[in-house]
UniProtKB/TrEMBL annotation:
<dbReference type="InterPro" id="IPR016186">
    <property type="entry name" value="C-type_lectin-like/link_sf"/>
</dbReference>
<protein>
    <recommendedName>
        <fullName>C-type lectin domain-containing protein</fullName>
    </recommendedName>
</protein>
<feature type="domain" description="C-type lectin">
    <location>
        <begin position="161"/>
        <end position="259"/>
    </location>
</feature>
<dbReference type="InterPro" id="IPR001304">
    <property type="entry name" value="C-type_lectin-like"/>
</dbReference>
<dbReference type="InterPro" id="IPR018378">
    <property type="entry name" value="C-type_lectin_CS"/>
</dbReference>
<dbReference type="InterPro" id="IPR016187">
    <property type="entry name" value="CTDL_fold"/>
</dbReference>
<keyword id="KW-1015">Disulfide bond</keyword>
<feature type="domain" description="C-type lectin">
    <location>
        <begin position="18"/>
        <end position="144"/>
    </location>
</feature>
<dbReference type="Pfam" id="PF00059">
    <property type="entry name" value="Lectin_C"/>
</dbReference>
Length: 326
C-alpha cells in the first residue's frame, strides 16, 4: 500500500549580511552636495562615524599632504548634516490638515535664522510672528484641544521649555498648537499679552547622518556646531583635532570621505510552524535579533548589519514543498 506523507513546508529566504564599512578618502575638492552624489555613485554614501574605532581608522587613512587648501587645510566632508527643511508639527496626524496646511508658516523677518546649536523649536508673539530658538529656553505655552477638524487654543501662563510644554499639553489637552492657516494664527496671537511669547508645536530635526540616523557618538570640536547657515559637517584632521567634527557652509569645497559596504547574501531555510506567519514584520524582526545575537557571540563584536531580501511579490519568505513517498 502506498502512502503519501504530509507536506514538509520549508520557508526559504535570502539574508543580507553587511559587514563593517570601509572608508575611502577622495581628495578632489567638492561641495557637500556634490561629494554626497559622488559617494553614492561610486561607493555607498558619505561616511558615517559611529564610534571611536571609526575615528581611529579615519585618522590613520587621512593623507594631510593632500588636504592643503588656500584657507583652513586638513578638512574633509563626512555624511553629517543639519536638515533645515525638516520642520514638523507636534500633531502628526495628517488627516488633521488640509492640503498645504502642514506647510503654513508665519516667520518674523530674517527667521528662521538657525543660528547656534539648538534652535530647533518655534515660539510666537502677540503679533503672530514666529522665531526659531533653543528648545531649552522657557516661555509660556499655547496648547490645543482638538475634536475632529475643530480646534480650541489655550494660553498656558507658566514658563516651560519646549519639551516640557509638549508633555504638559499632551497630558492636560490634546497637544501643542499646530497652526494651519492665517486665521488660526490670528486667533492665537490674541491670546498672548503684548511683550510675551509662547511655544507652539513646530520643531525640526537635529543633526543627523545621511541615512537618517541621529549620531550615537558626540565628537564635535569645542563650541561646535556654532554657525548660521553652516548646515554640513566635516572632519578636521589637523594637528590636535583628530578628525573632530565642525559645521561649515555646504558650498565649501574640500576633500571628502566615502564609505562602501561589504555585502554578502546567505540563503536561509526555516521549517515553518503552522501557527507562525514568517512574513509578519514582528516575526522577521525577532528572527533577525536572534541571528544577530548568535553572530555577535561568535565574532565578539557587533561589526555588521543584517537585513532581509524581499521576493518579487514583496514577501521575504516563500515556501518549498516536498512530498516523500513511504
Amino acid at each position: 500500500m502506498e502512502k503519501v506523507a504530509p507536506c514538509i513546508i520549508i520557508a526559504a529566504s535570502a539574508l543580507h549580511i553587511i559587514t563593517a564599512h570601509q572608508f575611502h578618502f577622495i581628495y578632489d575638492h567638492k561641495n557637500w552636495t556634490d561629494a554626497k552624489s559622488y559617494c553614492r555613485e561610486k561607493f555607498t554614501d558619505l561616511a558615517t562615524v559611529n564610534n571611536m574605532e571609526d575615528v581611529a581608522i579615519l585618522e590613520t587613512l587621512a593623507n594631510l599632504t593632500k588636504m592643503v587648501y588656500t584657507d583652513y587645510s586638513y578638512q574633509a566632508w563626512i555624511g553629517l548634516f543639519d536638515d533645515e527643511n525638516s520642520w514638523r508639527w507636534s500633531i502628526s496626524n495628517t488627516s488633521f490638515y488640509k492640503d498645504g496646511e502642514m506647510e503654513f508658516r508665519s516667520w518674523a523677518t530674517n527667521q528662521p535664522n538657525e543660528y547656534g546649536t539648538f534652535e530647533y523649536c518655534v515660539r510666537t508673539d502677540a503679533y503672530g510672528k514666529w522665531n526659531d530658538l533653543d528648545c531649552k529656553m522657557s516661555f509660556k505655552v499655547i496648547c490645543s484641544d482638538v475634536e475632529g477638524q475643530n480646534v480650541t487654543f489655550v494660553y498656558i501662563d507658566i514658563h516651560l521649555n519646549w519639551t516640557a510644554a509638549q508633555d504638559y499639553c499632551r497630558e492636560h489637552h490634546t497637544d501643542l498648537a499646530s497652526v494651519r492657516n492665517k486665521m488660526e494664527n490670528d486667533r492665537i496671537s490674541t491670546l498672548i499679552p503684548v511683550g510675551q511669547f509662547a511655544w507652539i508645536g513646530l520643531s525640526r530635526s537635529t543633526w543627523k547622518w545621511v541615512d537618517g540616523r541621529k549620531p550615537s557618538l558626540n565628537y564635535w570640536s569645542k563650541n561646535q556646531p556654532n554657525g548660521a547657515a553652516e548646515n554640513c559637517g566635516l572632519g578636521y584632521f589637523g594637528s590636535g583635532y583628530s578628525g573632530r567634527w565642525e559645521d561649515w557652509p555646504c558650498a565649501h569645497k574640500i576633500a571628502f570621505v566615502c564609505f562602501s559596504d561589504s555585502r554578502h547574501v546567505v540563503k536561509l531555510k526555516l521549517v515553518r510552524s503552522s501557527a507562525l506567519n514568517l512574513n509578519e514584520t514582528t516575526v522577521q524582526e525577532d528572527i533577525l535579533k536572534q541571528l544577530m545575537q548568535k553572530l555577535v557571540d561568535q565574532e565578539g563584536k557587533e561589526n555588521f548589519k543584517l537585513s532581509w531580501k524581499k521576493q518579487s511579490d514583496g514577501n521575504v519568505f516563500y515556501t518549498e514543498k516536498r512530498k516523500d513517498e513511504i
